Amino acid sequence: MRILVTGGAGFIGSHLIDRLMHQGHEVICLDNFYTGDKRNISHWFGNNNFELLRHDITDPIKLEVDRVYHLACPASPVHYQANPIKTIKTNVLGTMNMLGLAKRVKARFLLASTSEVYGDPLVHPQSEEYWGNVNCTGIRANYDEGKRIAETLTFDYLRQHNLDVRVARIFNTYGERMQENDGRVVSNFIVQSLRGKPLTVYGDGSQTRSFCYVSDLVEGLMRLMDSDRTEPVNLGNPGEYTILELATTIQKMVNPNSEVIFNPLPQDDPRRRQPDITRAMQWLDWKPLVPLEEGLTRTIADFRTRIIGN
Ligand code: NAD
Ligand code: UDP
Q1: Given 34, 80, 143, 174, which residue is catalytic?
Q2: pLDDT of 201-239, one tens digit each?
Q3: From the CA of 65, how far away is ligand 2's center (Å)?
Q4: Would you say 194 and 304 are in contact if contact means Cβ atoms under 8 Å apart?
Q5: Tally of CA atoms within 13 A in the half-sphere of 267 that contains its CB
Q6: Is the CB of 266 within 6 Å of ligand 2?
Q7: What is the topology classification, in CATH, of domain 2-173+213-237+274-289?
Q8: Treating both helix axes as pointing N-terminal to C-terminal, what angle do 292-307 and 243-254 enclose, rounded to 10 degrees?
């Protein structure tokens, strides 16, 4: 098949491309390199099945493909809040352009949505039936509401044009190739620890997140794409940790001498987050296989090579 991966030079997109290339598909990687990096996909340069397009999805583009994995969008709060209006344009105009592309060529379309559609959830753990609790005027809204409208658009293309759609609600994912300056918690703590700097816990660290290793997530995305389910599906690891627990785990694994310090909690930071993955287990026969410490070991090794060089 010919498969378009938007955001393919990013963290998750590049791992997905590796799997698709190994399966023998033709892959078009489309990216504007806002948070992506050519190094993530450079090992495919020169392969006849691989094409790289520098393009911003807020501008329309016509491509002949069988499937679209639509991942293009900055995912880290630091990056999506740096240019919030651009983030909204990427989610709204960009998603509309990619849906239009898929409609024209009757391609199957998978949206990389997010657990952020649940906002600061009042239901725990979060199942797909929950409608969420999002502050539409807050600093996270450009991303949260952007993804919510991206989902709305996707389901309107299904209802109005019978587009063949899939929607993955991705929970916090980590692994090799996260950017050093990404600003997300796993990369921050590892980079800080490796550099002998204090680990910056925001608030008192009692807020929780559930961390999924990237190979598990990519397997879930591919199973969802291959399934016949058009409803949203949560993809994440139900193992729930406080941020302070994560800090002390990484501290022990990287540098027990590093210090943990407490900084102010950002506005609208969700208190708790844990996926209910019943749908993914039943519909896709999927569950995460890589435990946190194993995934962290691999991620730390990758950062160590990039930062320290051995
Ligand atoms: P990432 O920032 O590493 O990758 C996003 C990619 O999209 C980058 O390569 C970036 O350059 C590209 N991009 C951004 N705006 C673009 C535009 N206007 N035109 C073309 N390309 C553009 O992030 P990631 O962690 O790989 O996330 C990928 C997708 O998964 C995103 O849609 C994100 O919202 C979603 N997601 C990720 C997580 C996570 O924990 N990693 C959680 C929930 C949802
Ligand atoms: N966080 C933290 N220190 C950091 C970065 C993040 O304590 O250096 C916290 C952040 O406040 C949030 C959690 O870690 O409660 C996850 O943050 P991240 O930016 O990774 O993603 P989010 O799930 O908030 O989108």
Answers
A1: 143
A2: 999 999 999 999 999 999 999 999 999 999 999 999 999
A3: 36
A4: yes
A5: 9
A6: yes
A7: Rossmann fold (3.40.50)
A8: 60
